[in-house]
Write a structure and sequence with these properties.
disordered N terminus, mainly alpha, 3 strands, about 190 residues, globular
Length: about 190
Amino acid sequence: MGESQQAAGRVEWPSPGQCPGTGTSGCPSAEETELLQRWNSLATGFRDLTDQLLADAQREIGLPPSLLEVLCFLATAPEQAAPMRLVAQSLGFSTAGTTGVVDRLADAGLVERRPSSSDRRVTYAALTPLGRERATATARVFADSVRRRVVEPLGDEGFASLAGAFASLELAGDPLTGGGVSTRSAGEATPESG
């Protein structure tokens, strides 16, 4: 696959006569190819947009994207704290990746770990007062970037429609997706630096 095809999120499959094996069993149909090309464009576009939004925030705030993601998540969590497992699931980080990010945030004085009052197996990541300041600044920069890069081009209704369409998919209960949670190490597929 050439770089221009990768950039566009498109895969060109060989024509049926060029497929490996016998008949057309080695290649997707034209309908399947179109469907996969649309999906690849959507998935690539979403990843690229997320990377751009995080890069905008990184330039303004000076923290790596994985740390910014956790700050934004905690800023909107009840009492600005969440169980580490929930942080990992919500952001698609591995357990080890989440631990590393929270360690870095704790070392910077932005987050503290708190034990659960009801379950000693659960540890919460909670924003400190300095963390609240940084999280608020991060949320403002990120929201401004979303407005500029997404809402302005799509319009308020287009953005609401897109968000509603994604929310309506409800993958969390789908047994084929394993609960709809994919794990990646913190910072994977993001413009990580520093």
